[in-house]
Amino acid sequence: CDKAFTRRTSIIAHLKKHTGEKSYKCNECGKAYIHISNLARHRKSHTGEKPYKCNDCDKAFTLKESLTVHQKTHTAEKPYKCSECDKAFKHRISLRAHQKTHSGEKPYKCNECGKLFTCKQYLRKHQGIHTGEKPYRCNQCGKVFRFISELTQHQGIHTGEKPYKCNECDKAFRLKLSLTVHQKRHTGQKLYKCSGCGRIFSSNLNLTLHAHQVICNAKNCWKCDECDKVFRYIFSITVDLRIHTGGTPYMCDECAKGFRQKSSAIINEHHRVHPKEKSNKCNV
C-alpha cells in the first residue's frame, strides 16, 4: 500500500497486517495476535483483572478504552455527526461504520467464504461461524462467548446490574438497546416503517410483531445487506442477520443459554435438559 513509516519496527508491524502473520500466541487458549500489546490485553480476559473503574457507577473494565466507551453511557453527548443524514454517534468508529452504509463500501472480506462486510466487527463475528471459537467463559454458569463484549453483556444477567439509565425518568436497563427503545416513548419518535403497507412504528420490536401477522404487499421487501438474500417477512431477515452476527437474544431462565428465535417449541425442548423439581415426595 502507500503507507510510509519513520521507524523500521513500525513498517515490520504494519506488513503483518498484509501477510496475516500472528507471532504472539496466548498460552491459555491458543489465540494469536499480530502485536504483543494486543496479546497483553487479551490475557487479562483470562485473569479476570479489571483495573479500570467507572467513577459514576460500580462497573470495572479490563481495558481502559472499554471504560472510555462505557463512561459515555452516563452522558447524552454524541459529537460525531454524519454529513449525509441527521444521525449522530458517541464514537468516531461508529460514525465511520455508519458512513459506509451510504457509500455501499464493504472493504472487509472473509478469507473462508468470500463474503464482504462494511466494518471489521461484523467480519470478526461472522468468522466465528467458521472457527466456532469461543474463548470467553462466564465464571458463574460456564457459558462461553466469541467476544468479551458478549460476555460482559451476559454477566449482567447474574449481577442484575442496569447501567443504562433514562434521563427523562428513573428507569434503568441492562442493555443499551432497551434504553434506546424506551427513550422513544418520551420523544414520540417513529422511525420504523413497513415497506409493504407503509405503517409507522415506534420501535423495531413493534414492526417485527406486525410482520408476524401481515405479509408485506411489496415483493421481496426485506433484503439482507450481508448476503443479499431477500425475504417477505422482517422476522425472517431478523433471524438471518443473527446468523451473521451470532446474536442470541432469547435466553433460558435456568442456564442463560441463548437462542436466535423466540420459539416456544425450541425453548421448551431445551428446558427438558433441566431436572424438574418434584414437590410431591413419598415419605415411606
Tell me the name of the CATH class of the domain at 12-49.
Answer: Alpha Beta
Largest sheet: 2 strands, antiparallel
The helix/strand order is HEEHEEHEEHEEHEEHEEHEEHEEHEEH
What separation lies between the terminal Cα atoms? Answer: 81 Å
Helix content: 25-40%
Tell the overall outline: globular
* Alpha plus pi helix count: 10
Structural category: alpha+beta
Q: What low-confidence regions span 5 or more consecutive residues with pLDDT below 50? A: 213-220, 277-284
What is the CATH topology descriptor of the domain at 12-49? Double Stranded RNA Binding Domain
Spatial arrangement of strands, main beta sheet: 1-2
Number of strand elements:
18
Keywords: DNA-binding, Metal-binding, Nucleus, Repeat, Zinc, Zinc-finger
Subcellular location: Nucleus
Family: Belongs to the krueppel C2H2-type zinc-finger protein family.
InterPro entries: Znf_C2H2_sf, Znf_C2H2_type
Write up what this structure looks like.
It holds the Pfam family zf-C2H2. By secondary structure, this protein is an alpha+beta fold. It has a domain at 12-49: Double Stranded RNA Binding Domain (2-Layer Sandwich), CATH 3.30.160.60. It contains 10 helices and 18 strands. The strands form 9 sheets. A two-stranded antiparallel ribbon has the order 1-2. It has a two-stranded antiparallel ribbon with strand order 3-4. Residues 213-220 and 277-284 have low confidence and may be disordered.
